[in-house]
Amino acid sequence: MENIQNKVVVITGASSGIGEAAAKLLAQKGAKVVLAARREDRLFAIVNDIKQSGGEAVSFRADVVSSEDMENLVAFTLSHYGRIDVWVNNAGVMPSSRLSELRVAEWDQMIDVNIKGVLYGIAAVLPIMREQQAGHIISLSSTSGYQVSPTSAVYAATKFAVRAISEGLRLEESASSRIRSTVIAPGLTKTELFDTITSPEVQMIANQISEMGISPTSIARAIAFAINEPDDTLISEIMVRPTAL
Ligand code: NDP
């Protein structure tokens, strides 16, 4: 039997792209999925799709920038399913630009969603997983979490930070509480992430390369693989990118 079956999996940013694909794939493999994001109408439609295919899922409106929303998401999941086996810190934004453009509000947004969002997720769920003496926290970094390019300084900084936080979590929790910590690092993937770009220069680059992106289902398969390994086996990092890039 797959080690995904019957696991309770919470996914932030599940209203589109990689989060949506992961929710659908994991539900298909027998997980009970809690989809969180801000756009409730999108969440309702995805939950409906999952249920129509025979899967189990519920949704909850939550903004990862609010630690209160993250605590409410945990409370909702516990009241519904009684435990949390896997938490996927997937929500993210990428309004990339050159530093000299001084898009300070967008720097703040990336730091808030991509770093603080991950930390607030961990803060909300870690006490529960420690109590359970088991759990798995999966966080979405990026190939930009390993390499910086012009226009990606702040986004890359947030994704380097995701790796640092996940590695710290692994070092602190794996031995004593058996909590697994995994980093998933996608390369270019066809999603709505590029819609958050406002810099004309970066929009032009994104338009040129976006067609080369892989399907979000390819990233979902990597997430499913990490979850499905036996509980004594930790997949600490997976990078998945287009063959051509
Ligand atoms: P999408 O834009 O399709 O999905 C992003 C999701 O994050 C949406 O569901 C959005 O939902 C949610 N989100 C954004 N802000 C918030 C917030 N404040 N609170 C809660 N949810 C929020 O992009 P992807 O699927 O591509 O992105 C998923 C992750 O993968 C991100 O962390 C991204 O950085 C990473 N990634 C993506 C790559 C790519 O090429 N696509 C490459 C490398 C990494 P809503 O607006 O409804 O709240």
**Pattern of helices and strands:** EHEHEHEHEHEHHE
Q: What is the end-to-end distance? A: 36 Å
User: Superfamily at the CATH H level?
Assistant: NAD(P)-binding Rossmann-like Domain
Bound molecules: NADPH dihydro-nicotinamide-adenine-dinucleotide phosphate
Biggest sheet strand line-up: 3-2-1-4-5-6-7
Low-confidence stretches: none
Domain Ketoreductase: 7-189
Family: Belongs to the short-chain dehydrogenases/reductases (SDR) family.
Keywords: Oxidoreductase
Pfam family, one: adh_short
Overview of the molecule:
- Helices cover 48% and strands 16% of the residues.
- It has 245 residues and is α/β, with parallel strands linked by helices.
- The chain has one domain: 3-Layer(aba) Sandwich (Rossmann fold).
- A 7-stranded parallel beta sheet has the order 3-2-1-4-5-6-7, with helices on both faces.
- Strand 2 (32-37), helix 2 (40-52) and strand 3 (56-61) form a beta-alpha-beta unit.
- Helix 1 packs across helix 7, helix 3 (67-81) packs parallel to helix 4 and helix 4 runs parallel beside helix 5.
- NADPH dihydro-nicotinamide-adenine-dinucleotide phosphate binds next to helix 1.
- This is SDR family oxidoreductase.
